[in-house]
Specification:
alpha/beta, 186 residues, 18% strand, four-stranded parallel beta sheet, 3 domains, three-stranded antiparallel beta sheet
Length: 186
């Protein structure tokens, strides 16, 4: 474990100084010392990552375009700004540069940075489309909006998104996503 001069856990970065000496600086977590955020804002290049964070139960705000003031406002809410654009690093507090183009590697980076943990109980608790927390679906609404075979196979496992009015149930999509997360090491 490495600690900064302020006593916070930090990652050392070695830089070559002007006089060919090695200078040691510390990269402190942008989201604050001792904090573990579970809310994110993903830039336009990270829509797939946002979807998988939602599947894993994390609050991940995403839209295809942001005005700079929107990003700052969301970061001020305590969200970590995830970006592939290095120009944002010094422009917005709580920014993490995501290094990979692949979701599997992006999730591993977030876990290595201490931003996410594996909590399978939280999986499939958020709408992967609009990011709202799912609720237990009302039985009268289920009968009207869910196929009959789903009601027969798993009547109690049906969730409802109060924002976009979509219904979710454990089926082949969920099984495939869980299998993919396991293959990825989660």
């Amino acid at each position: 474990m490495v600690y900064s001069p302020q006593g916070a856990e930090a990652r050392p970065i070695y830089l070559k100084g002007k006089e060919s000496s090695i200078q040691l600086i510390f990269a402190l977590p942008a989201w604050g010392i001792g904090a573990m955020p579970n809310k994110f804002v993903a830039d336009a290049m990270l829509g797939r990552l946002a979807k998988w964070l939602r599947i894993m139960g994390y609050d991940a705000h995403y839209q295809p375009f942001y005005e700079p003031r929107q990003v700052h406002s969301l970061a001020n809410e305590g969200r970590v700004f995830l970006t592939r654009n290095s120009r944002w690093l010094n422009r917005c507090k709580g920014t993490l540069l995501v290094r990979s183009d692949h979701v599997k590697d992006q999730l591993h980076q977030l876990r290595q940075e201490g931003l996410i943990q594996v909590d399978r109980a939280a999986w499939f608790t958020r709408c992967r489309l609009c990011n709202e927390t799912l609720q237990v679906a009302p039985s009268e609404a289920v009968r009207e909006n869910v196929p009959d075979h789903v009601l027969l196979e798993n009547p109690s496992g049906i969730s409802f998104c109060p924002s976009c009015n979509r219904f979710f149930w454990p089926g082949s999509h969920k099984k495939n996503m869980m299998a993919r997360l396991r293959v990825w090491g989660f």
